[in-house]
Amino acid sequence: MGTNLFSPYKLGDLGFSNRMVMAPMTRCRAVEGNVPSPLAVTYYVQRAQAGLIISEGSQVSPEGVGYVRTPGIYSHEQVDSWKKVTSAVHKAGSKIFLQLWHVGRVSHSDFHRGELPVAPSALSVEGDIYTPLGKKKIEIPRALELNEMPRIIEQFRKGADNAKTAGFDGVEIHGANGYLLDQFLREGSNRRTDRYGGSLRNRSRLPLEISEAVIDVWGADRVGYRISPHFSGYSMSDSNPCETFSYFVKELNNLKLGYLHMIEFVGGSMSTAPETRLASTIREILKGTFILNGGYNAQKGDEAIEKGEADLISYGSLFLANPDLPERFKKNSAFNSPDSKTFYVGEEMGYIDYPKLSLI
Description:
Strand content: 15-25%
Oligomer: single chain
Largest sheet: 8 strands, parallel, barrel
Order of helices and strands: EEEHEHEEEEEHEHHHEHEHEHEHH
Mean pLDDT: 95
């Protein structure tokens, strides 16, 4: 049989036992101080059949917070808690990367002692957000000053350094889903007229400077970057996503990035019109490892890898509900159904209580 989901893979000097990736998923189980919950050890170990686990998004600073009970990577307590996760995952035989996250404008002053969230530009954002004081409308953010850019870059660099201290195998930079780096890259959210706005080169500048800073910590092979060209939530838009993301990926090539992780289908839907899909265009441009995400099952994942459309496939809600997903794929077994009501609440329930095949 040819190359498929169960074929091993090498990312630089790092070996994966298979080509199934557990996608980063916000679970809102962190405890006081945005410290990963003790339950996170069990949660990630349960899913260690994945060749690679990418952690839930973890804020690089308090300024990057936009959701309740999401973990960070900026305090000693957070690092110490993540150490327990990485050690346990390694003992279970898998590799784990941490996702570096700054939400930018997708936040509220309730998270920031009354200070407005930051963004490339002071533009209104559609949508609501759950704050420590309840559900509220997303506020118009404050545009970052030019002299603040080094501070943002340093937050990501320090987060990357902390991830290394915590024992991760690498990091993924979150440049997707309408968060800060996505906001800088796309023209619908970036109306700046300085060196960080306007032209594609300028809009790409902060994401690339952050990528360089993170690579300086880890080396290029151990750094990934996530994009979502089709994402339109949180008032995100771009008049020419093909041009924007093609340019950006060419620039990432120059950095010899370890991998690019692309969310291909919005909402996990496979109904995206073929003529608007950018995966094949990005695949042709990209010189490194390509991970695709969104709407894939075992058959479609195998087909994408066999045809060379991707090197690895990441799974979100399927891995959430099926801790032993690779075993289920191999045995062609039935799946647990994800319970969306417990995605972000429930403590153990909907987090570490999905049964494995041996318990059914």
